[in-house]
Design goal:
By secondary structure, the protein is α/β, with parallel strands linked by helices. The protein is built from 16 helices and 13 strands. Helix 1 links the parallel strand 1 and strand 2.
Length: about 425
């Protein structure tokens, strides 16, 4: 594949031929982006003047404007835009008609708003029982907290992920993960729900209402934290660049020979892993300089992988485990960051370079994968580099088909939509 080339450009996406009506919303924008990337026709319904997220920074050349928000560009690529004022009866009628042509409705409205307007799921699905309606809200449509307001930060904090994010130095507060992770986590669950409901409709011919709680979605993605608390009553502790755990684990960051920080990943545990590390040391001419090579040889001869429960309990297993960890760090410190990353990949060892966003897009590994893609902006007479497919599915590729829409750019198509 040519670097930056879009894979599977001639192949239809998995959701080709399906129509999604998305009520423009900050929390659900990523869900709509994913559905559009998988081939669905996603029609954004915006209020007069455009959705408020068109005012989100950063802007092209730092010049504010509703068509210059890079946030808007990213989250609304491949979508169409129509403007409808749901506070007016005539536009509510148009909305009802538009929904009648859709396979899926996606919204993240405040619970109660659509019901007050007479355009909620129970009313519209009664007329169209095949319709799938996905509601994405902070705490779900039901329950004592359903009317509470929330933003991305409070989704992450209340859901639990913030507790596990941060540094070994616990005098520093927990860190919020950047990039709208709370909204994106909820959006991923919304997309999975939509796909599952579509599969069910293929069998039954009937749609359904799906109530997605961002708080619940965040909570079930806390990895060990929720399980440890619910099962053992124990609290995990945040650690720099590592999974949060009840007991501290080994520091994993190292500085490569070119002065770039790298992540040394999880230490070798299997015979295959230790054999690979030994071979790597030999290829680099470093084996004689690594004093604990003997323990690596012992690891390579083991029939059973090392289990973490052995560390600190079995002296031999502890020494072998420590040698594997130190060997990977030793290699990292003696090669460049890219050599370290490529060498580990070639040997089936998971490590990483600690990149800036710009470095990610420039990295040959990501370019070969086709992650950076060029999206043409006909209105500006040039293209811009976007992050591309979040996953690779050769038989049903994810594609950015066109730039994000201008406010009401496709209003003229409403007669054809409805």
């Amino acid at each position: 594949m040519v670097a930056g080339e879009t894979p599977g450009a001639e192949t239809p996406g998995a959701l080709e031929g399906l129509r999604v009506v998305e009520l423009a919303g900050e929390a659900s924008a990523y869900a709509g982006l994913l559905l559009a990337g998988m081939g669905a026709e996603v029609i954004l319904v915006e209020p007069p003047g455009g959705h408020h997220s068109r005012g989100f920074e950063p802007f092209l050349n730092d010049e504010p404007g509703p068509e210059r928000s890079l946030w808007w560009w990213h989250y609304n690529a491949s979508k169409l835009s129509v403007v409808l004022n749901l506070d007016e009866a005539a536009d509510r009628d148009r909305f009802r008609t538009l929904v009648g042509t859709a396979d899926v409705v996606l919204e993240s409205e405040r619970p109660g708003r659509l019901a007050d307007l007479g355009v909620d799921h129970d009313v519209l699905r009664a007329a169209h029982p095949e319709l799938i309606w996905i509601a994405l809200t902070p705490f779900g449509r039901q329950g004592p907290r359903s009317r509470e307001q929330s933003v991305d930060l409070t989704v992450l904090a209340a859901g639990g992920p913030v507790w596990s994010c941060g540094y070994d130095d616990h005098t520093i507060p927990p860190q919020r993960g950047g990039g709208n992770q709370g909204y994106q986590t909820g959006s991923v669950f919304a997309v999975l729900a939509a796909q599952t409901a579509l599969l069910a409709r293929n069998r039954t011919g009937r749609g359904q209402f799906v109530d997605v709680s961002m708080h619940a979605a965040a909570n079930v993605t806390t990895e060990f934290a929720s399980v440890e608390w619910l099962v053992a009553g124990a609290e995990v502790q945040r650690q720099t660049g590592r999974h949060a755990a009840v007991h501290p684990t080994t520091f994993v960051r190292a500085m490569a020979a070119d002065g770039v920080d790298v992540h040394t990943g999880f230490p070798p545990r299997s015979s295959r892993d230790f054999t690979a590390v030994l071979g790597w040391l030999e290829d680099l001419g470093l084996r004689d300089r690594f004093e604990e090579a003997f323990f690596l040889e012992m690891g390579a001869q083991r029939e059973e992988p090392l289990h973490l429960s052995m560390v600190g309990q079995d002296p031999e297993a502890t020494a072998i485990f420590g040698a594997g960890r130190d060997a990977v760090r030793f290699i990292a410190e003696n090669v460049t960051s890219h050599e370290f990353f490529v060498g580990a990949q070639q040997r089936g060892l998971a490590v990483g370079i600690i990149y800036s966003p710009e470095e990610v897009l420039a990295d040959p590994h990501f370019r070969q994968r086709g992650f950076p893609v060029e999206v043409e902006h006909d209105d500006l007479g040039r293209s811009f580099t976007y992050p591309g497919a979040p996953f690779i599915a050769p038989k049903s590729p994810y594609l950015i088909r066109h730039r994000a829409p201008h406010i009401g750019e496709h209003n003229h198509l409403l007669q054809f939509f409805i």
